[in-house]
Amino acid sequence: MATAIASMFNRQWKRTRLLRPFIACSIAILIVLMNPAIARSIPLGQLPSLTTPSGTQPLPNGVERRGTLESTEVRLDGKELFRIASPAVLNRSEPGSQVPVEVRATQIERNLEQLVTGNGLSDKEVLNPNTFQVLSETVNGLPVLSVKDATLSEAKVLLTVTDTDAQYASISKDLLATRWKEILERELRQALELRQPEALQQQVSTVIKVLVATLLLTLVLGTAWAFFSRRRQQLEQHQVAESAMIHAHELHIPELAVEPSDTNQGLQLFQGLRHHFSLQRRLQMVQFLQWFLFWAIALIWVVGVAYSLNAFPQTRQFAKKVVTIPIVILITWFVTGLTNRLTDLLVDQFIQNREQEQSLTEANLQRIATIANVVKGLKMVVVYMVAILWVLQWLNLVPGSVLTLGALLALAVSFAAQSLVKDLVNGFLILLEDQFRIGDNIRVADISGMVENLNLRVTQIRSDEGNLITLPNSLIAKVENRSRTWARTDFRIEVAYNTDVDRALAVVRETVDRMAQDPAWQSVILDTHELFGVEQISHTGIVIRILIKTAPLKQWNTARELRRRLKIDFDRNHIQIGIPQQVVMENGFSEPSTVERSQAVE
């Protein structure tokens, strides 16, 4: 039994190790889609076909609306310089004379990029980082910022500071123009200097150093990963050997034995089980370290590539837009997995402390395996759901409206979700009331077997034929637990009709008492005096019935051993089992004779 519990715990942990993130992601996304309130606060993605209740379209990425104003950032080489503003455009498909703020920002960025890269300019019109100037001139009452240099044939206009910009910044136009002028001079000079040959050589040298350091760290961490891989194989082999040893002890413990066995074998079994669970925790620690090293190598390469791309101004914008999001997602996934595994270790440590406080019995093992499995599953869902919601919020994926989508999905899923809610509620009640545990032998309707897996939604039962039966918890209305506290053998045996009934009762009584006093069965047989006597008399014989109270799950082994012993004692005392009686009539007189009918034995 203990081996079955330990092996089931191992199989369940290994089977769900890779599926946990995907299951958690699916559940989290389903929860978000089904809940309009969550969906409104944590948007899921761009849905341009949907309109908001006010009739406006969704804002483009990076655009913020404040009252009647919309603002967005102006970037150079992926770095934000400042924010510009324009009147809100409610219908971007038909803006009319209005210029959306993102269109204005794109034009300003193109002007800056043209000056920095020289695209669209002649070879002579190249800005000198030491001589160019950013000028502010008033045209039609609005400050206009432009760039002037000896290499340029004429000043290049960058942007116009509008009344909307000043209103958004809450300062005057002239003061805002002066502030933007200083920012543009500083950032343009830096961008030009980074594109000089000397700066390019330094950037290449830095990238080479970063890549070499990345390779060295990968080599060191890869060596450590290979070491833990070999250690993991050793522990797995040791675990298999421990399971075999525990199984051998179980077979030697007096369940089917006739001769008395060593009384220390039970203690040895429990010590072996404790060592087995300790070995399992060490194996989980090694697997965690392997996982940590793998993610460390992945993160090192992601950070190294991102740093290398960020070193060059030409690829800095690409690094910001393309690399940042994967990095954040990978880091979030790593931190989430780290949190999930660390909490697994905390749960295991708590269980270990509980084991030290109380004796390690089979009931404790069952309870530990069941609760640990459910707690880890719930914790996994919560951790990954929080991570997914945080990533969605960080990405700022704002749809036009998820209220309609959420309502439709909630309506479509509500009928199917009813059974799911029933499963979860009933599973919670099963755990709360401790109706059964992993390792218990139960019967539900016409299904019986040992509980191999139990969570809030389903219960999996391994039948006597070896079939794995999965039952939704909502279907478990009445359950028979045949392995809790104690069990009972309803033993019946039929002897021949002409047998001396008192003598037969005495033989059965003596056999049962002798078996109950056997050291091999003293801890198994709890009581033999609840019921004993003649249950039935018929033409087939006399039925003798006895109720034997046994330890949990020992009722079947007890009945098998008692049949074996009764066969020996019946043969010794010349007691025959019951057989059908038939009367044969000869010449009008009846003469009893015994005819043995052939019966199929299954």
UniProtKB/TrEMBL annotation:
Q: Where is the composition biased (Polar residues)?
A: 49-59
Membrane topology, as annotated, equals: Multi-pass membrane protein
One Pfam family assigned to this protein is: MS_channel_1st
Residues in domain Mechanosensitive ion channel transmembrane helices 2/3? 379-418
GO MF terms held by the record: mechanosensitive monoatomic ion channel activity
Q: Where is this region: Disordered?
A: 49-68
Q: Which residues form the Mechanosensitive ion channel MscS C-terminal domain?
A: 491-577
- Positions of transmembrane segments: 207-228, 288-309, 321-339, 377-395
Q: Does the keyword Transmembrane apply?
A: yes
Alphabetical GO CC annotations of the entry are: plasma membrane
Q: Specify the domain of life of the species encoding this protein.
A: Bacteria
Q: Where is the Mechanosensitive ion channel MscS domain?
A: 420-484
Q: Please state where this protein is localized.
A: Cell membrane
Keywords associated with the record: Cell membrane, Membrane, Transmembrane, Transmembrane helix
InterPro entries, per the entry: LSM_dom_sf, MS_channel_1st, MS_channel_C, MscS_beta-dom_sf, MscS_channel_2nd, MscS_channel_C_sf, YbiO_bact
Instruction: Name the family.
Output: Belongs to the MscS (TC 1.A.23) family.
Can you say what this protein is called? Answer: Mechanosensitive ion channel family protein
